[in-house]
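Q: For a teaching handout, I want to show students what a protein-ligand complex looks like in token form. Below are the inputs, and the small molecule is nickel (II) ion. Please produce the holo structure.
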Amino acid sequence: MTIKTVLRLGDPILQQRSIEVDDPDSYETQVIIEDMFDTMHEYKGAGLAAPQIGILKRIVIFGFESNPRYPDVDSIPETILINPVIEILSTEKKDDWEGCLSVPGLRGLVSRPDHIRYSGYDKNGAYIEKEVKGFHARVVQHECDHLDGILYVQRMKDMTKFGFISELEQNDIYNSSLCDTCEE
Ligand code: NI
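A: Here is the structure, written as tokens, with nickel (II) ion included.
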């Protein structure tokens, strides 16, 4: 149980492709998953990918009851996804604001498919599959992008919709009731 430092934009590890996990139920994998949850909770993130703590393995976690960084969205059950696969179910894309623990203090508008099915393995090595929409679908895509070395900033089309939260809010470009004491 260790809170790790989240790597930030500019660290070349974040640009690398992570490798498949051969042994989802191994002790080593359980330790990585525990450290990821400890770290995600400490940083109050909605999700985290293993490369963000310097481990280039295809493991993501996500979920929260309520999240001060995203106060207006519905809760997502805490999920561990190993070797995830995403299937796009709608060609229709939606724009929404994203943040990332590796890009602290900033938000950007990203267009993504709104309806997906994801599959993968849990920490016992059991196969899981789920169809999701909206913010849930967005979080899963954002986290899985990390496994291919992609940060949300690289998905952006309009860089005028990118900036520090405080400046975006002051200029009515982005609005939220974000808790200003929480860690980014
Ligand atoms: Ni991220």
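A: Two things your students might notice: The first strand starts at residue 47 and ends at 49. The two ends are 21 Å apart (CA to CA).
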